[in-house]
Design a protein that fits this description.
Helix 9 packs antiparallel against helix 10. The chain has twelve helices and no strands. The longest helix has 25 residues. The relative contact order is 0.05. The chain is globular. The chain is an all-alpha fold and about 260 residues long. It folds into three domains: about 90 residues, Helix Hairpins (Orthogonal Bundle); about 80 residues, MazG-like (Helix Hairpins, Orthogonal Bundle), CATH 1.10.287; about 50 residues.
Length: about 260
């Protein structure tokens, strides 16, 4: 059995792939062309975490690790920075933003750490981020971005005091969406649907629930239940398009029951 590879060997392999006589596909890649893979690998890591499969997670973390190594190799060829520069910048940031670990500062809990982290970030960025809402990436999924935006607003006191107030806001926005729907104006319907989704995201954030994660898990459950309905109808010899809604609802409830039993 070969000894374990080291991080330096990984970097050397990446350089060899990019070098003349290496891999044509790897050599053609740019920061921009790799963007889709960075996103895909991130979601595959999340999927492996959901599966609670350590072997799968190990593999997917490796695929994700390849991305910064790849980007750093491209940057190094242009004389911008190397992977060692990336690591140095990260270590410096971690030490600087954890003065309660590497310095004399004392904090009482994780909430205090988050607050102190944000203060340090603000001092670092200074004029680069004049707004309390600055620093949220434009390309985040919309629900996650809504969560981040409202989280930043809450840190400067722009927030509800009680969960009941947020619930009331969700109900208010739902009624306004119903009114827009009744009026038949597509533009207003879109506006009110956005307001409703933002209010729901805010409620999730207020209750310490990530709306992006909640929706992702709901989609996963929907897919599993739908597949169960498809499989059961196929077993019965009934094409799904010929099944009645009542038949599909019955199988859907069976899928939900089986799901609940598996969690007991």
């Amino acid at each position: 059995m070969n000894p374990p590879y080291t991080f330096d060997q990984l970097v050397a392999i990446m350089r060899r792939l990019r070098a003349p006589g290496g891999c044509p596909w790897d050599a053609e890649q740019t920061h921009e062309s790799l963007t889709r893979y960075l996103l895909e690998e991130t979601y595959e890591v999340i999927e492996a975490i959901d599966e609670k499969d350590p072997r799968h997670l190990k593999e997917e973390l490796g695929d994700l690790l390849l991305q910064p190594v790849f980007h750093a190799a491209i940057a190094e060829e242009s004389g911008n920075f190397s992977i060692n520069d990336v690591i140095h910048t990260l270590c410096d940031k971690l030490i600087r933003r954890h003065p309660h670990v590497f310095g004399d500062l004392e904090i009482k809990d994780s909430n205090a750490q988050i607050e102190n982290w944000e203060k340090i970030k603000q001092l670092e960025k200074g004029a680069e981020r004049p707004s309390a809402l600055s620093g949220v990436p434009d390309h985040l999924p919309a629900l996650l971005k809504a969560h981040k935006i409202s989280e930043k607003a809450s840190r400067v006191g722009f927030d509800w005091e009680h969960a009941d107030q947020v619930f009331a806001k969700v109900i208010e926005e739902l009624h306004e969406f119903e009114e827009a729907w009744a009026g038949g104006n597509p533009t207003r319907m879109e506006d009110e649907l956005g307001d409703l989704l933002f209010a729901i995201s805010n409620l999730g954030r207020f209750l310490h629930l990530n709306p992006e994660e909640a929706l992702r898990k709901t989609i996963c459950r929907f897919q599993k239940r739908f597949s169960y309905v498809e499989a059961e109808l196929l077993r019965q010899g009934v094409p799904m398009q010929n099944a009645t809604l009542e038949e599909m609802d019955l199988l859907w409830e069976k899928a939900k029951s089986a799901e609940r039993e598996s969690k007991l």
